[in-house]
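Late entry, pyridoxal-5'-phosphate complex.
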Amino acid sequence: MNLVEKDLKYIWHPCSQMKDYEQLKPIIIDHGKGVYLYDQAGKEYMDIVSSWWCNLLGHSNAKINEAIKAQLDRLEHVIFANFSHEPAILLCEQLMEIIPKGLTKFNFSDNGSAAVECALKMSFQYQYQTGHEKKTKFMCLSEGYHGETIGALSVGSMDLYAKIYKPMLMDTIHVEAPDCYRCSYGKFRDSCNAECFEHAEKAFAEHADETCAMIVEPLLQGSAGMRIYPALYLKKLRALCNQYRVILIADEIATGFGRTGKMFAFDHAGVSPDIMCLSKGLTGGYMPMAITITTDEIYNAFYADYNEGKAFMHSHTYSGNPLGCSAALVVQKILREDRIIEKAALRAEYLHNQLNEALLDHQHIGEIRHLGLVNAMELVIDKRTKEEYDSQLRLGYQVYKKALEKGLILRPLGNVLYFNPPLIINEAEIDKAVSICAESIKEVIG
Ligand SMILES: *Cc1c(COP(=O)(O)O)cnc(C)c1O
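Prediction complete; structure with ligand written out below:
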């Protein structure tokens, strides 16, 4: 049996209908370098989706490799209750320099969904321990995505992932999210005053008494198809949460560390959340690690004599893993010293221009929306009516398969094709990705 056959014999791949693998076999990656991955036969694939949005600085980055190797010979892991280590401490000190003002306390876990679960439990317990026992529910935006565990799914809104599990999920309040491409107020980005925020106002007026926290993907609803909404919405939401004493949770798992053009998506709004969840780019896409960061005010509501029972009795075996922390620490150093985000801004403009030139006039591309290096193209039947293709046609998936043949990993979100490359992608790589993408679309759709 070769490796592909053994893979199919043993492995149940994530987020996959395994029957699809009869037609499109698993691609066994041997090694990676920069924006490229190489299969066993040496075929090159450009990782334009950053391996599920986590690879920040390229594959096999020499500095990150070196930092992890050095840490490996020192300490691989240690229980994080009552014990600590230098990489975790220095990492917090570094992050304090860049995170939104007011966030001061760091709770470590090992994946994005876990960071969200942590934020939800923390909010709930904070409200309880400050005399607001009735505030037990969570609010979220429609089409939101916060991970796949039961709590995270409950505050997610995408039927694709959540529908079948509804009987298992918490009862949450879903607020209609901004939909700028199909704006029902007929606004364009320039004329918009976040009119759609009225849905949040209405929901708060009705439900704030029973709501402990509101969670959002700031500016960019990733899984929903890279839907982008204005920073003004976050500003308004900050004020509303203050007014009703609702905790504001920023899920910056996908948007953190320069993906939106600034360090964090909340930086565009100039306000701070009460809790921020980080993962994905945190370690440059190397190690499974996440952090839930909060304020002194929330932290202090748990701080008491042990027998008062107010502690946050929440843990993960791999909390604060030193290998993850050492990777995250060197990622911070590279971002700072190599001015990665500043330089990526130039390439972001270049990428958007190239995509516009190649595809903006295409009759089946509704719009090319963009934020930072993230660019998303929605495939539609008719550009003017924005009519959607039947999802059963799996058009995005057809384009994905075509692009794979040509060496580009253009994994779609339904009928949305997107670029979310490592921040270090260069202009020649952008040209290549854009041209493969355009060819693939033309060969599949015309
Ligand atoms: C990926 C993602 C998560 C979940 O992270 P996992 O590590 O996959 O559990 C949560 N929220 C957002 C916004 C994400 O993009």
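The chain has 15 helices and 16 strands. Will revisit in the morning.
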